[in-house]
Amino acid sequence: MSDRTIPADGIGMHLYSMREALAADYPGTLRQLAKIGYRSIGVSGRHGHSAEEIRSFADDAELRIVLEHVPYSRLTDDWAGALADVKTLGGQWIVVPSLPRELRTLAGFREAAGAFTEGGKAARDAGLRLLFHNHGHDFDEVDGQVLFDILCDEVEPELLGFELDLYWVVNGGKDPVHYFQTYPGRFPALHVKDMAEDGSFADVGSGRLDFAAMFAAAGQAGIEHWLVEHDAPTDQWDSARTSYQTLAELRY
């Protein structure tokens, strides 16, 4: 561990964590996140607003939108429109958050790798980068093959990176540092989500994940943004404040 800290403009909030507040007051929620100290956000769900409106809300709050989650189905159903929306938002990454259940097989992941190759080319041509966000089941092993590794190995790095969800990597029985070291430069964004002793979600810093050890490989991994996420916070604002403070003070 050193005295390195996360750059202030690298600490963000993935807005899925704040969905109840957003549904009630989207622009007010963004302003409050900025007051806590967050500098960037990842969009997940529009709550009835257009990309133009959300960009305006973020600009007014002086928050940078770095990415948006877009369903896998959009790869074949108006991918050009999805890319245009992320450009409108001002994002640099377009993120597929999960694969359909029917693709969670060796053949399915190989099919997805092909789709990501083509989608990644279109994203690159639009000045964006395609990322995939993982869940625990993505690290299942089938006939000795880790499903997630198919995407790492079969899609060129410039066409597919990853928004690695640290909780779900550990939930899937794997070590994030292994991936940072094995596939350097593939992980520009993280979901920083902690794990309680019983395996449930926890505010960043209140659980058992060793973030300092993980972030020590940040340079090798290519990490640019650390996005807080909590899937089911007891109090979303308390969680947002606690998690931000942990990341702002963390040494790694």
UniProtKB/TrEMBL annotation:
Keyword Nucleotide-binding: no
Domain Xylose isomerase-like TIM barrel: 31-236
Claim: Isomerase is one of the keywords in the record: yes
One Pfam family here: AP_endonuc_2
Molecular functions per Gene Ontology: isomerase activity
Keyword vocabulary terms for this entry: Isomerase
Protein name (Swiss-Prot/TrEMBL): Sugar phosphate isomerase/epimerase
Organism: Kribbella caucasensis
Organism placement in taxonomy: Bacteria, Bacillati, Actinomycetota, Actinomycetes, Propionibacteriales
